[in-house]
Amino acid sequence: MKIAVFASGTGTNFEALAKSEIGPKIALVICDKAGAKVLDKASKLGVPAFLFRPKDYPSKADFETAILAELRANDVEWIVLAGYMRLIGETLLLSYPNHIVNLHPSLLPKYPGKDAILQALSDGAHETGVTAHFVDAGMDTGPVIASESIPIEPHETEETLTAKIHEIEHIFYPKVVKKLVEGKLK
Fold this sequence. Notes:
Elements: E1 2-7, H1 12-19, E2 25-31, H2 37-44, E3 49-51, H3 60-73, E4 76-81, H4 90-95, E5 100-104, H5 116-122, E6 127-134, E7 144-151, H6 158-181
Parallel strand pairs: 1-2, 1-4, 2-3, 4-5
Antiparallel strand pairs: 5-6, 6-7
């Protein structure tokens, strides 16, 4: 079974997945931002990486159709979003029903979208965490697969909480992806 990892940034969650024993092969990385560090990380780990920039396509459907062709050429069965900062559209959603998973740095449904860590701190929340969920057409609105909570300490800053979240993500996400592709989670 092959998976594709979609990422837009530094690629720390991709790297955690690639270095873990998740079972399925990471067939490729799809990135939407030129110069993103995930492209270098993929190269160093020997994982083919492809850059698809939305501005190079006349529509979102054309953009996703080009990505879909690459996924099919590589027999990809699962799409794993790892810091991919773009909503998935109908073309991919219809082609991979219940086979696209995302990791979000909050206990959904609280704090969807960008800046979830800062939102939790600004709200005075006493806990937050990470959530893996199936992707639908909304922003972090798909069915929750698994989550893990962590306390927010009184002295917590955005930087310290982000570091704690990343530490959990790098262990949590590979385990969830492994169980998902093995059919042990639904």
